[in-house]
Amino acid sequence: MQKKNVNNTIDNPAREQRIPVTVLSSKPQSSKIHIRQQKGDFQKIRTGMNSLLVALFFLLPFISYEERQAILFDLNQQQFFFFGTTLWPQDFTILAWVFITAAFLLFFITVFWGRVWCGYLCPQTAWTFIYVWVETRIEGNRNKRFALDKAPWSGDKLKKRLLKHYVWGAVALLTGCGFIAYFVPARELYIDIFSFGASFWVTTWVWFFAICTYLNAGWMREQMCLHCCPYARFQSVMFDSNTKTVTYDAARGENRGPRKRNQALNSANLLAANLEASSTVNAILGDCVDCNLCVEVCPTGIDIRNGLQYECIDCGACVDACNQTMDKFGYQRNLIGYTSENALSGKAEPFYESYKFIGYGIAALLMLTVIVADIYSRSNIELNVIRDRQSLYRETNDATIENSYTLKIRNKTQQTRFYRVYVSGNSGYRLVGQANLKIEPGEQLDYPVTVIATPELLAGARNEITFTIAEQHNYAQASQESSFFAPI
């Protein structure tokens, strides 16, 4: 039978009769956190999103596009391949804008849902839960892991610990390979690493990231979130009274206390039976049965009932655990749930009236505009004009003036392109030599050219000249100005 919730009634007389009680943890406190596995709606979402994140992390480097790894940071060639687009070092401002935009979008989401990034998408959280899953399968549930920690060393304990760290190490090594696969062709990397055929530096970087993964997810875990992650420190400036975070409804839950499932004591039951019965109990109990599950399932080991804390990563594990308990006792759900301070006090305001909502939204839109403008203005041709430094000019036998240049032309696409060279700035300029060029994908061509001009058509000793490289059958082109010198 569903229990009627009367604890939120303003004029509830039983609330005034509540006497504070001492709340004790049902489990011994330990410096090491062993997470109790928890099932529930939010854990299904978290597990699904973490699984998708890990799968994409490992599988993306194996996607091919036009006979090339689709996503690859090629450090040797100083190119970033993203499917059909190639970014060069001078194009990396686009990546900078992308990261800045992602930061503003993260802030924008934080205004509404707190640290949901940490709870559902952060790689630290995903790999920590992978390591906890391995630990649980080998050493047992939370209580068994505590018992194993306290047990003296034996053959069984040594076997479990060695197996656990072996699997942890294998996951870490795969993670190191997965990360470096974005910089070295993936299909070659895994074969070279496991056959000990990789180069010294490739092997060094793989093992460096493997060791980092092993330490972060296996040993440091919540310490990364509590002490190393800067987001945990400055997130509070993005919160406001309408931010939905994992919150304990103290008005409904206190005073907390254990009870039998079929004899749940609360203010409504006591009033219905006999108000005088309240003198025979230490306090009128709220909905919290003090099962302590919310603490045991928390990855950072906090007690959410103590109020909002920066250590909370909004993973929803305590929400699922509390809802499970509320269902068993027939109480209303969401004693712990995603809600805001204003919602608890009954004065929620429209989110669009928040200055933070407007500010972060405008900033994100501006950065998206910058990205679009930068991509639109980006050219697939790069041209640099270098004058001949040996001489300013030369006079030819047919009374013309010639200047020599070197055109550095880079084809920034992944296909072979055909270009034509043009000169402009004076009707007397003529290009000597072949004007049509063929450049391979990613190739930089150093092409020497000579320009001649009739002295009578020149304005002075120094004249402007513009070189243009245009792709045939396409509007893509690049231009650069230089100088054409002649006798005074």
Automatic annotation (TrEMBL):
Keyword rRNA-binding in annotation: no
Keywords: 4Fe-4S, Electron transport, Iron, Iron-sulfur, Membrane, Metal-binding, Transmembrane, Transmembrane helix, Transport
Source domain of life: Bacteria
TM stretches of this protein: 47-65, 94-114, 166-184, 190-215, 357-376
Keyword Electron transport: yes
Gene Ontology MF annotations: 4 iron, 4 sulfur cluster binding; metal ion binding
Gene Ontology cellular-component annotations: plasma membrane
Domain 4Fe-4S ferredoxin-type: 277-307
Name listed for the protein in its UniProt record: Cytochrome c oxidase cbb3 type accessory protein FixG
Protein species of origin: Shewanella pealeana (strain ATCC 700345 / ANG-SQ1)
